[in-house]
Design brief:
By secondary structure, the protein is mainly beta. The chain has five helices and 25 strands.
Length: about 500
């Protein structure tokens, strides 16, 4: 794999020399952070960094596009560790493994084919099979209502984590040549995990369009939770199958995403879950809603309602949410608008310590946004992890309740642009013996229009327990982005200072 990767990199440079018009460009990125110890701390200076390059070539023989990239990360390391190294091999041992990948686009004018290889990551349908329950952190001012299916194969990025080596293939039907456009995707990893997805879409005029997809996955599932063994629910690791059906219905006034999945279980019976996400809109009003259910929870051990394909235990038995929004258009030259949103979320969960305990948890969130041509201001209030019923037996199994407020905005002035975010959180004490906790954060970025490649940023975070400061940190940084015909670059340096 590495030999193929570096051979393609060599091809890029030869291509750039002998056939420059096909060379789309290079994108170089570098980010680093220097952490200084607090004055009274015994900790030492530490340094972390990530760097990499992306190269693109198009219209090379029968290949429509080639995307090759490689990134490497130095995790947070004390500076003394560099002084102790004696050779280049010792220095490279401090770095994480190289993340690399190559993507090829073939036959775009006939039957489009995409091939990707390297340390790829996967999302979309695969993410739903790993964690099917909806997120409780829904934005009350959410505007998009997306429906994305397939294996979601992605090449590595500067901030992505290391993944096993894998190969992915995507084949699409030619545009406009089939009554129902089709797409087929598949991948296999070096660990022999694999998945395949087939999707189709069809529009029936202006009032209805339908998309549907079927995904099948085979992953190695193992017992990663010690609590299962303690409750006589342990199992031996083995390859297991899962299947997911997804459908999207879209009209001018109503949209719905339907999901239904079956999971092979290490226990006797199959596991199944159902989920619906919907949106209804009329004029300036909009209503989002979601419902999730795990109907097969009683056929599995109470401490493990469902084992997902990434070996995690799904502990949400059902959840429901609602999110109304209202938009007001303000008169004036700036074409301003004011949006209000409220989201309410409730879920029945299971916690497992010495046994299985049920509890109901909820979250409320209110948001308000003012938008104009040069101004975007947002306010948010959140009350999270409120226990409505049940009593988790231990502090570690109880979601940490908190209340938070935040205010952020983007402002554009004739000479500069700025973005900021200020927030505060309050964590009530768990019991009479615990202490309450508070945190305050502020972050700001500044872009001078005469120095547009430069972005300056800074911020701080302070945490208090009772009335005493528990921790505090100040960050400042500068990012420089340059663009030319063939080369783009981004270099970011950050200084972190506890105080």
């Amino acid at each position: 794999m590495r030999k193929i990767f570096f051979a393609i990199f060599g091809l890029f440079f030869l291509q750039n020399i002998f056939s420059a018009p096909c060379f789309d460009g290079a994108d170089f990125r570098f980010t680093s952070e220097l952490t200084l110890p607090a004055f009274s701390s015994e900790k030492k200076k530490a340094f972390s960094a990530s760097t990499g390059i992306k190269l693109c070539v198009s219209d090379l023989f029968f290949v429509s596009k080639i995307d090759a990239r490689s990134y490497i990360t130095l995790p947070k390391t004390q500076l003394d560790a560099f002084a102790e190294t004696e050779s280049a091999e010792d220095i490279f041992s401090l770095f994480d493994d190289v993340r690399y990948g190559v993507g090829l686009s073939l036959f775009d004018k006939t039957v489009p084919v995409q091939v990707k290889a390297g340390k790829l990551s996967y999302s979309k349908s695969i993410s739903r099979l790993k964690n099917p329950a909806p997120s409780a952190l829904s934005n009350p001012l959410k505007k998009s209502f997306a429906f994305s299916t397939g294996v979601g194969a992605s090449l590595p990025t500067l901030t992505s984590s290391s993944q096993p080596k894998s190969v992915a293939l995507c084949v699409s039907s030619p545009d406009g040549r089939l009554f129902v456009p089709l797409k087929a995707e598949a991948f296999v990893t070096e660990e022999k995990n694999c998945a395949m997805s087939v999707s189709a879409s069809r529009s029936f005029g202006k009032f209805l369009s339908v998309q549907t997809a079927l995904t099948a996955a085979r992953f190695f599932v193992e017992n990663n939770a010690s609590i299962l063994k303690k409750n006589n629910a342990g199992f031996d690791g083995d390859f297991m199958f899962a299947g997911l059906w997804e459908t999207n219905l879209k009209s001018p006034f109503f949209k719905a995403n339907l999901f239904c999945a079956l999971h092979q279980s290490p226990y006797e019976n199959m596991g199944a879950w159902f989920r619906i996400d919907g949106r209804a809109a009329y004029k300036s009003a909009m209503l989002d809603f979601s419902f999730f259910s795990l109907p097969t929870k009683d056929s599995s051990p109470s401490v493990a309602p469902l084992i997902c394909i990434d070996s995690s235990v799904l502990r949400t038995l059902w959840s429901a949410s609602i999110n109304p929004q209202y938009l007001i258009f303000l008169t004036g030259k700036n074409a301003a608008s004011l949006r209000f949103g409220l989201s309410a979320f409730e879920a029945m969960k299971i916690c497992a310590t010495k046994g299985a305990e049920l509890f109901c948890v909820g979250k409320f969130r209110f948001g308000m946004e003012y938008e104009a041509s040069q101004v975007d201001l947002k306010f948010d209030f959140t009350a999270a992890n409120l226990i409505f019923s049940g009593n988790p037996p231990t502090k570690s199994s109880t979601p940490e309740k908190y209340f938070s407020v935040s205010f952020d905005g983007n402002l554009a002035f004739p000479l500069f642009c700025t973005a900021f975010r200020a927030g505060a959180k309050y964590y009530p004490p768990y019991d009479s013996e615990s202490k309450d906790k508070k945190s305050i954060t502020f972050n700001m970025s500044f872009v001078p229009k005469k120095l547009s490649p430069f972005t300056f940023s800074g911020g701080f975070e302070m945490v208090f327990k009772e009335q005493e400061k528990a921790s505090a940190n100040f960050d400042s940084g500068v990012c420089v982005k340059t663009k030319s015909k063939f080369v783009n670059s981004s270099v970011k340096c950050t200084l972190s200072v506890p105080f």
